[in-house]
Amino acid sequence: MNNLQSLEFFVPELILVITIIAALITDLFLKKSKTDVVGWVLGIGLIVVALSVINLRHVPPTTLFLDMIVIDPFSSFIKLVVILSTILIIIASWNNDELKDYRKGEYFTIMGIMVIGLFLMASSVDIIMLYIAIEVVSIMSFILAAYLKLDTRSNEAGLKYVIYGSFSSGVMLYGLSIVYGLTGSTNYFEIQEAISTLDSTANPALIMALLMIFAGFGYKISAVPFHFWTPDVYEGSPTTITAYLSVAPKAAGFAMIIRFFHQIFSDGNALGLNLIGATDMPWPEIIGVLAVVTMTLGNLVAIQQESVKRMLAYSSIAHAGYMMLALPVISIDAVEAVMIYLFVYLFMNLGAFFIVITIKNKTGGETFEDYRGLGWKMPFVGSVMTLFMLSLTGLPPTAGFVGKLYIFKTLIGAGESFYWLVIAGGVNSVISLYYYFHVVKVMFLEGERSDEIIQPPAPLFGLLIVTAVPSLLLGLYWNPLVTWVKDSLIFYTQTL
Amino acid sequence: MENILSLLIWLPILGAIVVVFIPRDKEDIIRYTSAAFTGLQFIVAIQLWRKFEPENGGMQFMERLDWIPSLNISYILGVDGLSLPMVMLTAMLFFIGVFVSWNINKAVKGYFALYLLLDAGVVGVFLSLDFFLFYIFWEVMLLPMYFLIGMWGGPQREYAAIKFFLYTLFGSVLMLVGILGLYFTCGKTFDILLIMERAPEALDGALWWGMSASKVIWVLLFIGFAIKVPVFPFHTWLPLAHVEAPTAISVILAGILLKLGVYGIIRINYGIMPDTVWWFAGGLAFLGLVNVIWGAMCALAQTDLKKLVAYSSINHMGYTLLGMAAVVAAGAANGGDLKAAQAGLSGAVFQMFNHGTISAMLFILVGVVYERAHHRDIDGFGGLASQMPVYTGITALAFFAGLGLPGFSGFVSEAMCFIGAFPVFKTIVVLSTIGILLNAAYFLWAFQRVFFGKLNEKYKDMPEINSLELFTVIPLAIITLFFGIYPRPYLDLIRSTMDQIIEKVAFVANYAAM
Predict the structure, then answer these.
(1) Which candidate, A95, A102, A205, A196, places its Cα nearest to that of A154?
(2) pTM of the entire structure?
(3) What is the ipTM metric for this complex?
């Protein structure tokens, strides 16, 4: 489809652009204490964007802007996940005391720009477009991570993020250039076509290119060994941004990986067929090994943390590992499992970070020491945190269990060469119980009954309810979610 | 009473919700509410028992509802001769447990809410006939148990709680893999009855990693259940959890939670993979022997009265394993000794119930003395018989029941286990009789040290067992005595179901022998 025709299907992004401009202009007229209003502008804009995404959900899958991006139900799903998490983060940002001394106008505006980048990440089918999308998201993340300019840790986070991000995107770009050199095209479908006709002498170059590209992807979803930035950045950034980085870019990152590998390195119409063999690239094995290493390392290091925020950073590495477990199975079931996991992970992980915000507002700290005896003083916060920890561990009847169930189900259904991944995933869940319940332990098992019961302020209370209810309910009845995910499992595919 | 089984599960959950909404200062109202809900549950359980038809060996009072159709998950409940006595035991012990916990005064509201949730989880496991539902209830028990041990337990409670949690979770993860394996091999269903029907054919010749799939799945499920039983070498969490848990929770843990493991093995492993029973029976008998001897030896070495009782549980669960292994006696290869198989399996199921009542009694009695002396050191007492005659009498009764004296229910079931296992596993049975000897030794020796000799001066003002405590022990003592003298009603209740299980295992064996 040419550029002019494409605009009709690009309405959500256009509305988003208008919203961002509106946010920038609004900010000019506001005093520092009133900049929360910019959040309203972005929030309302995002709701309109969501409506137009839903409106376009069922148009026949097609490519836009001369095969640069696609619009299909899968990208709509990821877009809605991104919008949902962004709106929750906007509300949390209003109530995050860390941001009290700063203007929030730019903060919300930058967040809006990041959403555009995430949208493009989820829908690009061209390696140039892909690269641009990643860079848009990354650069906005650097700024947001360093947003607390008076806090040295936040500055450190931003700087580390820049260095790491530019390095890994450089490596990735090099990998992409090798792919271009071998195939002579930047379009996914043409690359796939070209690769299937390459003879095996090109394999070493392709494998190298693959590993380099995975450096870029792995950095985005914080997979080992590209995860080194994660703990420091997550710890130093404002907690709202940490929460955001752990959910939205990860969702878009997985969408990007699924599209890239399943479209280019599988034969036939990778997505849309039930089971397809890969080309002779060993990428499923590579991802399988990386998944196991990622979750094991994330879990083992998380055990030793003294800060809850940093513990959650490592836990999010581990969760990236769980989701990666399904990727080596090249089937529609695997994509379904990852999508379900992403959706439930959104609620439980954001919820856990909202608790960190609540506690930090109250005690000013985020170490386990600050949580001591909290369950007695703030029973609501304590119980909800227990629910999130249960869900992150993956115990029924919580949403986290459903996520893991679908991942394990995919692996066991795919045959015995994947069983070892199930065992590794299971053992890792047991390990993760230890550190997740460390929080529960200090909250409830230590400390004494207090006479005063403290409730969190109303907005945070609301946010906790909004994240806690799905974390429990989706564990008891997730049929609507599965229906929605199954409806969204339609990809734009093209055979040349 | 259409949905009597659902009622049994949802009553305690409703109770927990009600308790959560009672203001936390109204402690007595919370206690009475919990007693009311568990009492109501007990009454419903008695109703269920009265309406139950013992001649029918299959599932009764079935309930079925679609839940997650895309994965073929349903809400299926049913009860048969295997689960009914366990449900009765659960309802009874949870009712009694409320009174055992009457003196808990730390965070009463939280305690009883979790207690009722635990109740629902346990009953749910016994009644569910859908693997997914089964698994959910199985896991739902973990969290309340973690808190009940970790918040209301003894000095090492935090360690004990997390150790219990990690051990059980490890087992359940393996179990989940086994369940998913069955789900895929048996045509994508979680319906346990359907899987039982399809599994022998579906698993026949199937391979996992070059090994027979049914053996691999058997082992995965077995480890999950064995941790709960606990079977040696997975037992190390148990003494710790028992010692640290508050009295009522020890009662529940020993009385019911351990049975879940045995129940799981009989219901799931035996029901779904009867042919693999043949492969594993020898191992099961051997593990039984190790449990019997190891548990008894450890009990003999304890100085803590509660730890002694805890190890006696390991010892007693060994007998059930022996009895269960005896099922293979019914096969043609072993002479088709149906009587032995019946004795063994019924003995095992009977032993589950008896150990439930006897160990509950023992833990309550240990709790009584701990409440007064604030320690449980066996050598730290002495001569209590003259100070607390009633308490001594009842403890003597409980100890005699525990060591399997004829006239008490424990003797009947242990004897049945031995009689059943003897034709097939002669050496193992002979060796495990040493366990009985040791069993008597540790109970009698402990009894002597605590109650006889010179009265320890420190305890010359020790108050006698009070009426609330008596109220919790006496019913259990009566049941123990009654079934010791007249076990027939119990055995009649379970016979048809046991026969069905035996027939299944024996049929496979005859089939294989041809």
Answers:
(1) A102
(2) 0.92
(3) 0.90
